[in-house]
Amino acid sequence: MNIRRILAVWTAKAACGICRHMGRQGVTWAGKLALMIYPPILQEMAGEIQKKIFIVCGTNGKTTTNNLLCAALESEGETVICNRTGSNMLNGVAAAFVLAADIRGRICADYACIEVDEASTRHIFPRFHPDYMVLTNLFRDQLDRYGEIDITMDILKEVIRSAPHMELIVNGDDALSACLAMECQNPWITYGISEPVTDASDDKEMREGRFCRKCGARLVYRFYHYSQLGDYACPQCSFARPPIDYDAREVQVGGQLSFAVGRERIVANYRGFYNVYNILAAYAAGKHAGLTLKNFNRMLKDFHPENGRMEQFRIQNTGIILNLAKNPAGFNQNISAVMADQTQKDLIIVINDNDQDGTDVSWLWDVDFDRFASEQIHSITVSGIRCQDMRLRLKYADIPSYLEGDVENAILARLTDGCGNLYVLVNYTALFSTRNILKKLEEIRP
Amino acid sequence: MKQHTQTMQLTIGHLYPDLLNLYGDRGNIACLMKRCQWRGIGASTIEFESEDTVDFKKLDIVLLGGGSDREQILVCRKLKKIQADFKTYVEDNGVVLAVCGGYQLLGKYYETREGTIEGLNLVDLYTKQGKDRLIDNIVLQSPLCSMPVVGFENHGGRTFINNNRPLGKVLYGSGNDGESGYEGVIYKNVIGTYLHGPLLPKNPQLCDYLIQKALERKYGSLKLPPLDDSQEQEANTYMVQRLIK
């Protein structure tokens, strides 16, 4: 074994340990150090995966889908390397492998499940070619960082073509993802929902890619699920929603989610219609790779996301749900999930504009916040670096809000005067700090 | 003569939101609508999708937003059909707010590396694609308002406004071409700008300027009743203080 590789592993593990001790995440730093000490570490370790490598891409649902897929494989007795925390750029991906190595720098895993930031695929693919790519969806996200969706699609097309043997598992309900798969020569299969589930016909959501990417005509939809996801066809050329290989039928949403796929009935104790897609994507990927997934339902039962995705807390007498909401499509789905709970609730919305969030907050105006104008909403508090913008956004929907820039103070205030049912919706950089605050409060105020 | 705003009515035309809808343009519409309604002025918005015909005679404010380059080329084909009517509207002091891609379309052409996109030729300006995109928060001092104008810019084009008046002087950020020190354009009652964020909610004086001009064109001179803008001012001041030390 190469001594530099061992040194890289030790250094990364030490760096990560120190960061954890200081209450920071440290994963990306660990990966960065490992790559500095031994640059080929990622390609070497990826090459040592014994069976297959999955990567998960797409604007929304990457972390949940990837973690579900990892848990599904583990429940079949496989050992899996996974970037669970969602560090999905080059350093984070390297860290997932390096931190999984033993003290002698060896890795011993059947599978790798790696979520990759779309723009970072360009740095990952030269180092290893995955066997499978799951593509969840393409929505507008951080236009200041990624540019238009067209740019993201061009990057993905380039990397997919560079790995001609990689098989794609794509969301067939998304015209953009499906079109991307059609334009590459790679083998691909689809998952989707062929029946309308929610009434999304008259919402005011932003819909991407309304025009056929082949001929420019306006696509015709039989129905929408949300955003541009639905059943589409071009009236002018042959472009249409492809046949669906893993089709969710009899979909039920509410307190829990359930649907049928193939001969299975899948039941999960989650909220949010969008999670049907995440579960279905993980299921399709595992099945397509040849696993039986006989323990899938049991895995779902034991799956407790601890990463701020619909994560539950209890502080004194208040039940709290923390959820990430970082772009219009994701935020609109969050609003649907919040409003599906018909009891009284307090809301805290935390908006930051750090580099990782995108410094442009204009996307707030593309979210349908008007739906919060409801008797069910006991109060709304705006917080985070751009709380002023968030307050204005609500003002122009005629919804009053409290302004408290400090997240901990905002939470403490609603614990005192709230109705005992609190939702905290945060964007990216607010997630980790808000989660730490909630964890801390849960410990000191059980 | 002082008039009662209660009986007044404005119609906003939102051009091609199906193609030009990148940067929270709905915020500009919401701001125009609410600031009319809060004063008792009737306001309605007509969304014209790319197949619809546009009757400019019925419109008091026209909003042209930003789109991706691909979509902008699609729009350009549609715009040909309305060019003459749009020109008449502008020369007749019709109020227009054109943002990002919409701003570029006001001019003669947008020269990109892939080819030249012909514009509407409503204002004497033109755009050339630059090397990098200019992406950041931006602050202006504009003759149209006492508060600084704050927003966000994200554009690959460099726009040259010839002898026209700019919307403002750049205090922070890049502006029209990254060099002249000016941003946007004012021509008659047309404002063209790269500022989104969206533009109007944090710049209520600019919003009121557009409403005022539209009402004056329709009903003669008047004074807009003031609104409580403390939240708008706080949001504006926060950004100004953060960016300009």
Q: What does this entry look like structurally?
A:
The complex is a heterodimer of chains A (446) and B (245). Helix content of chain A is 37%, strand content 20%. Chain A has 446 residues and is of the alpha/beta class. Chain A has 2 domains: 300 residues, UDP-N-acetylmuramoyl-L-alanine:D-glutamate ligase (3-Layer(aba) Sandwich); 134 residues, Protein-Tyrosine Phosphatase, Chain A (Alpha-Beta Complex), CATH 3.90.190.20. In chain A, the strands form 3 sheets. A 9-stranded mixed sheet of chain A has the order 2-3-1-4-5-6-9-10-11, with helices on both faces. In chain A, strands 12-13-17-14-15-16 form a 6-stranded mixed sheet, with helices on both faces. In chain A, strand 15, helix 13 and strand 16 form a beta-alpha-beta unit. In chain A, helix 3 packs across helix 5. Chain A is globular, with a radius of gyration of 22 Å. The model of chain A has no long low-confidence stretch (mean pLDDT 93). In chain B, helix 1 crosses helix 4. Chain B starts with 8 loop residues before the first strand and ends with a helix. Chain B is 29% helix and 30% strand. In chain B, the strands form 2 sheets. Chain B has a 6-stranded mixed sheet. In chain B, strands 5, 6, 7, 8, 9 and 10 form a 6-stranded mixed sheet that branches. Chain B is an alpha/beta fold and 245 residues long. The interface between A and B is medium-sized, with 29 and 35 residues.
